[in-house]
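Hi U.,

Before I forget, here's the chain from the pilot set. I'm dumping it here mostly so it's searchable later in email.
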Amino acid sequence: MTAIGDIAPPESDELLTVVGPTASGKTALAMRLAERFDGEIVGADSVQIYRLFDAGSGKPTAEERARVPHHLVDLVDPLDPFDAARFVNLADQAIAEVRKRGRCPILCGGTFLWVKALLKGLVPSAPADAALRARYAKLAEENGRAALHEQLRRVDPDSAARLAPNDLVRVSRALEVYELTGKPQAAWHAEHQFQTVRHKARLLGVERSREQIDERIALRSRQWLDDHWIDEVRDLLERGYGEARAMSSVGYQQVQDYLAGDLQADQLHEAVVRATRKLVRRQRTWLRDEPVCWVAP
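Structure:
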């Protein structure tokens, strides 16, 4: 385990990249690195990218954003389409602009597919098909998202294991790729192998035990629920954002279930904790073979 004081300054073309499980303290580490190396933070989070998703997304606070400039946070409307390709384009621009100012860009976020796409290239596959997506959305509405996920499991079990059943957008995309190409999305990923080097990167993460992560998840979830998370989700639904992609993310889905009467008040916190722990297990799997330098909290 490395002390933050032992981290060497980045080379001119090197991208410091903070990764790790949710609730591990990525934002705090990125802030410390930015203040040490005169940096600005480029977000890589598929919920924080959206405006209005604040209470349950772990967005940097107003005080943190005042201390260190942040990019790709609060960027798009909740119903705007946003994928890895668009993220890569905007992140490239932000990184170039930060360097043009003579400062150090620091990538930080838990959406590791986006991080991999930025650092190692996008996986080639079929273009989007609006008709197919509409059909999958109708199937999910009629039979439930779990049924759509089961359909994916039958044709692409590796992708199904990686994706949460409630992640309608990514489950639909994986089915779309299979239907259009006849090849599972997981096979496209395996062939690509993310071997292209788009950015020379040094991966850093906060070292936490599983027990510490669990404790932090439970505490954070309780704080957010006691704050205004439930009111935020209710307001988003009233504004017509129920179909927004971020609404299916961990935590937001469970709060929706509570507001719909599918969870009782005394069940909500534990449901959020369980879903977040599942996400952490997937994140740990993604990072298992990556050369992360783990830093002391």
